[in-house]
Design brief:
Number of helices: 2
Largest sheet: none
Distance between the termini: 77 Å
Shape: rod-shaped
Number of strands: 0
Strand content: under 5%
Radius of gyration: 24 Å
Structural class: mainly alpha
Helix content: 55-70%
Order of helices and strands: HH
Length: 54
């Protein structure tokens, strides 16, 4: 095996690992941030006083 082919395999492996980590990070971020309350739910009332629920 020549040195250049070993280097190419190493680069390809690193690229594959980076791609997998990117995909896993993206999935984690979308799941975590998908469960946070929206801004509408946590925004205070326009009067500055708490809203009363009937």
């Amino acid at each position: 095996m020549r040195m250049s082919s070993v280097s190419d395999e190493f680069r390809r492996s690193r690229l594959t690992v980076k791609a997998l980590l990117f995909v896993l990070g993206f999935q984690y971020a979308t799941r975590v941030f998908g469960h946070l309350p929206s801004r509408e739910r946590v925004r205070p009332a326009r009067t500055g006083r708490p809203q009363q629920h009937n």
